[in-house]
# Entry
Amino acid sequence: MNHSLPVSLHGVDTHAHIFHQNLPMVPGRRYSPHYDALVEDYLGCLDRHGLAYGVLIQPSFLGTDNQYLLEALSRYPKRLRAVAVVDTEISEVQLDELAEAGVVGIRLNLIGKASAEYTGPAWTGLFERLAGRGWHVEIQSAIDDIALIVPDILACGIDVVIDHFGLPTGGIEIENPNHKAFLTLLADERVWLKLSAPYRSQSNLAQARRVLAQVRESSGGIARFLWGSDWPNTQFEDQTDYDRQVAFFEALLPEAGERAQVLLDNPAKLFGFDVSR
# Structure
């Protein structure tokens, strides 16, 4: 299959992972893949669904070794961007190398971690450096913890992208102060939300529609919503796949104009893709 950029394709998948099962992995990880998720397989998914671009997210089990990610970017620079995992000591030269390769942000995976691990002058200094580059910080966190860390990051002048609907397992409860604080954050024009991986919060379509209605109201519309396949759906491979995630998104946003905004217009602003229609 030809993985150069077909002019007829539009749209951006803002969340996918690639890896090889024999790569060095971090100790204490929550998950170890027993298969390979190759970039060519991912691009095949994009092609099949008429999507031009993809954003690769560094998997947490690979830690701060972004080399596999960078190799994929070097092979398909027109179609891919990436979000890396780094530590606070990363040098400006190293950040320059990531930026040159197509990295546009960093990810913090707070699952199983305390948000306090990402506060303090070292992290603040990094966030401020990244803000100067126009990067963003992506957060994966349970909904109850999001408001504990995001305001401090926003104070550094950088955009924040929240993964997977905010992981609202059991739904968003307005009377829950943590959930209310999460919804309040969405009103900030620097906060983006990925409509991705509903299965990670055990959400079916009806539940996801209720959550979407709540976050849409809090965000003042859908201008900062993004879509991601979460391919290859790690830990849920037996429950879903790329095709089913596309179908879920189409059912969640049945109006074609709104889908186009989330697939085209919104990610173009955040990631700098050319998605002219």
Observations:
- The radius of gyration is 17 Å.
- DSSP finds nine helices and eight strands in the chain.
- The CA atoms of residues 104 and 147 lie 23 Å apart.
